Structures are given as C-alpha cells and as structure tokens.
C-alpha cells in the first residue's frame, strides 16, 4: 500500500516547511520538500493536505484505561477510539487495575488484551509494591515501558511505603522508574484537619489545601535524591507546582525527566467553585501562579513532556461529595486541542507542542522508530486543520464515561486524520477499526 500526503505544512524537529510524504506499507519511505512525482511511484491513495498541518502522532506516556477490572468506567477499546480521535497514536498505561499489574504474568495479560482491542500502539507499566522487587528485576526493557511507583502511598493493591525497599528499587530497577510524587502523611493530616471543620462534606475548593504544594515538593525532592544516589532513570509524573518546576530547573542530571498534564496548564484552583469534583485529581490543580509557571516550564524545555493522566470515572461517582468523589478526569481525546489553544494564545509554539507531546516521549522512553517524521520510521501521523472551530459536547465525546471537564469549550483547531502504522484509523469524525495497534519496542542500553 502506497499513500501520499501531499502539500502539508510539516512540523517536525523544530522546523516547519511545506512538503509531502510517501508512506509504503506503514513506513515513511520519502519526505519531499518540493515536487513529488506521484505518477512515477504508483500511489494507491493521495490525501490533499494543502490547508493542513502534519505532525507525528502524539505519544501519551500516562493513561489509566481501566482494563481489567474497572471496565464500567473505561476499557482499552473505548479509550483508544477516543485517543485516535484526539491524535494520540501510542499510549502507556498504568498498573492500578483489578488485579493490579504487579507481576510480569499479569502485565502480559494486559498486552494480550491490547493486541486484540487497541486501535493504537501500546505499552504497560509494571507496578511497584513493597514485595515485588524480584518481578521488577525480571523486566525486559525492550518491551516494557517502565516501573510505576506511588511514592509513599497506596493505590488499590499497590503499596510502596517501605524505605529500604524503595532504595532497592531505585538501585536495581533495569527500567525507567515513573513516580507519582505526593507525601501521604501530609495529605492525611490535612484531610483530618478539614474533616473536623466540615465533616465529610468538605468544599471542593479545599482540595489544593489538602493535597498541597508541600506534599508534592517533599515527595519530588525525595525521589530526585534517590535517583541521584543510585544513578536511576527517573521520570517525574504530573508536575503541578511552580516549586517543582523551579527544582527541575536546577537538575543537571540527564537521567531525570518530567511530565505535566493539560489540566494543570488549563485550569487553576479558582475553577473548583464551578467545576467541583469534575476537576478533582491527584495531584490537585493549584493556583494561577502555579499554572503560569508550568506553562513557562513547558515553553522553555524545563518540563519535558505533556501527558494526560487520563483517568475516567463514572459521572455518578464524580457527582458525590468531596470525600466520596474519586480523583481523576478524562482528557486523552482533547489533550492536543488544549495545547493548540495555548499556541493560539501565543503561550506556546506549535513546534514546542510537537516537542513535548511527540518527540520527547520517544526520546525519554527510547521508543524505536516512532515520534518523528523521518524516513524509515513508522507512519504514526496526524493531520490538523488549524482553522476549524468546534465545540465539545455530548454528541462528540467518545470516552466510555461520556463526560469531560472540557465540555462546552470551543476549540479553534481540529484533528482531521490519524494514521497508526500507516493505517487510517480516524478521519473527520469516522473511526476505522479494520487494523489494530502494535506493542511499542524500546531501544535501551
């Protein structure tokens, strides 16, 4: 199969230029900056992209697709449909499912499910506990993206609060260590304090006063210290504070990288009053000053990647009072659009968006032959209409949970085409399910 994407504005590796691509059997065969000899190469399909922007597919390094065990909220098929519509061509899924993916055997079951159900490319983290160091040591770094640690807290069947065990993980893990950094002791004390004031009906406006800046910074500093001590490969997830961004500015260790999320770049704590539990997430969304510092950190390469922490819950669950409202929000369908709105506002450039959502995830995780528009690379690609206004509403939300905090927002750019391994899986509102994604492969020393 030969496909030509013709006359697009190509944004790749900090350059923007007019050009065309030839895709042969799922691989980028040629990149043309001028005339493309279509008649001489026997093309099957030509896509006129003269009014569109062509970029690599988004690689989302942090999602919770809820399968197995929590499929009333989401599943791999439903969320990869939504992801494809949002220009995401690869994902890395977290281990806090039921059962938790804390053994290689359980992890491989998730891979088998994805092989049958995922429309886009996939990988899965192994979860760390106080008792599974032997499983972590067995990781094949070529085909597993990393180890996930909830620093000092418990999520589902995952508990990693033993300091001696933590030291061993940082010392012995053969794979990248991705950390959720919040200090559980601080959070529990704050929760008890506000319960004495409000009982179970704590106003949502107090979420960032419970899951505080201090809780994040204390934990992040601890993770960084462990990484320096053991020369670990550390990736700090969902950075939410200006103080953490400042800490990252001072880090000179290339084995430490970081991520923030679209909701931290879009919302601030002033939105709790109107949005309530629908923007309750962990870590919490904090002040406008924190939001602006994170935007600055992305614009200047201080924070490396933007991933969603896509974490769907049922609408009924999110409508509960504070203590009974689970944390997390769905955004994988809308993350690129959010970032493109920041481009329109001149907060970021489109080149920076491509760097932090496509190139840097590929670099940080050492993903083989993806994340760039290069000859010989997999044709994971998206086309964007930069002048297509549309509004998020119930009719176009594709998450299984059927809601998003970005509902009623009007975006000014639209993903028109998503290619995964050269296969068209999304085009102008239509999903094509005749092909499936592939397991991500990692090239690591």
Description:
The structure is a single chain. It is built from 14 helices and 22 strands. By secondary structure, it is α/β, with parallel strands linked by helices. It has two domains: 2-54 and 377-388 and 411-431, Roll (Urease, subunit C, domain 1); 58-364, Metal-dependent hydrolases (TIM Barrel, Alpha-Beta Barrel), CATH 3.20.20.140. The strands form five sheets. Strands 1, 2, 3, 4, 5, 17, 20, 21 and 22 form a nine-stranded mixed sheet that branches. Strands 9-10-13-14-15-16 form a six-stranded parallel sheet. Helix 8 runs parallel beside helix 11 (288-299). The relative contact order is 0.17.
Indicate the topology:
Blueprint: E1 2-12, E2 15-24, E3 27-32, E4 45-48, E5 53-56, E6 58-63, H1 76-85, E7 88-93, H2 104-117, E8 121-124, E9 126-127, H3 133-137, E10 147-151, E11 154-155, E12 158-159, H4 163-172, E13 177-181, H5 184-198, H6 207-210, H7 213-230, E14 234-236, H8 242-249, E15 256-260, H9 262-266, H10 272-275, H11 288-299, E16 305-306, H12 315-318, H13 335-344, H14 350-364, E17 381-385, E18 390-391, E19 410-411, E20 414-420, E21 423-427, E22 430-431
Parallel strand pairs: 1-4, 1-5, 6-7, 7-8, 9-10, 10-13, 13-14, 14-15, 15-16
Antiparallel strand pairs: 1-2, 2-3, 5-17, 11-12, 17-20, 18-19, 20-21, 21-22
Helix pairs in contact: 8-11
């Amino acid at each position: 199969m030969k496909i030509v994407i013709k006359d697009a504005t190509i944004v790749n590796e900090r350059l923007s230029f007019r050009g065309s691509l030839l895709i042969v059997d799922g691989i980028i065969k040629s990149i043309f900056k001028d005339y493309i000899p279509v008649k001489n190469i026997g093309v099957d399909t030509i896509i006129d992209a003269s009014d569109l922007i062509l970029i690599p597919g988004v690689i989302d390094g942090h999602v919770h697709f809820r399968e197995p065990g929590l499929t009333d909220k989401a599943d791999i098929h439903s969320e990869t449909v939504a992801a494809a519509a949002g220009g995401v061509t690869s994902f890395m899924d977290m281990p806090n499912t039921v059962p938790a993916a804390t053994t290689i055997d359980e992890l491989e079951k998730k891979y088998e499910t994805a092989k049958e159900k995922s429309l886009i490319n996939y990988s899965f983290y192994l979860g760390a506990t106080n008792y599974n160091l032997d499983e972590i040591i067995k990781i094949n770094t070529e085909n597993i993206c990393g180890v996930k640690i909830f620093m000092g807290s418990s999520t589902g069947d995952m508990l990693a609060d033993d300091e001696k065990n933590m030291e061993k993980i940082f010392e012995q893990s053969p794979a990248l260590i991705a950390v959720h950094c919040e200090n559980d002791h601080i959070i529990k004390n704050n929760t008890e304090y506000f319960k004495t004031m409000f009982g179970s009906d704590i106003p949502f406006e107090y979420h960032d006063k419970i899951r505080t800046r201090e809780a994040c910074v204390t934990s992040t500093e601890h993770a960084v210290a462990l990484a320096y001590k053991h020369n670990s490969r550390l990736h700090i997830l969902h950075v939410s504070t200006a103080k953490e961004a400042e800490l990252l500015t001072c880090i000179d260790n290339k084995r430490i990288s970081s991520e923030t999320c679209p909701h931290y770049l879009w919302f601030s704590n002033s939105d709790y009053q109107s949005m309530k539990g629908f923007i309750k997430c962990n870590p919490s969304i904090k002040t406008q000053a924190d939001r602006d510092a994170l935007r600055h950190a992305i614009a200047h390469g201080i924070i490396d990647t933007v991933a969603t922490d896509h974490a769907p819950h049922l609408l009924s669950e999110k409508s509960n009072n504070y203590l009974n409202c689970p944390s997390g929000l769905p955004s994988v369908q809308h993350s690129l659009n959010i970032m493109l709105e920041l481009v329109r506002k001149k907060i970021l450039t489109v080149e920076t968006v491509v760097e932090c959502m496509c190139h840097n995830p590929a670099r940080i995780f050492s993903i083989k032959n993806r994340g760039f528009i290069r000859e010989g690379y997999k044709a994971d690609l998206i086309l964007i209409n930069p002048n297509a206004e549309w509004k998020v509403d119930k009719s176009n939300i594709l998450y299984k949970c059927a809601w998003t905090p970005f509902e009623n927002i009007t975006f000014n750019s639209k993903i028109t085409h998503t290619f995964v391994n050269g296969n068209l899986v999304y085009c102008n509102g239509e999903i094509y399910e005749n092909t499936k994604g592939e397991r991500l492969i990692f090239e690591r020393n």
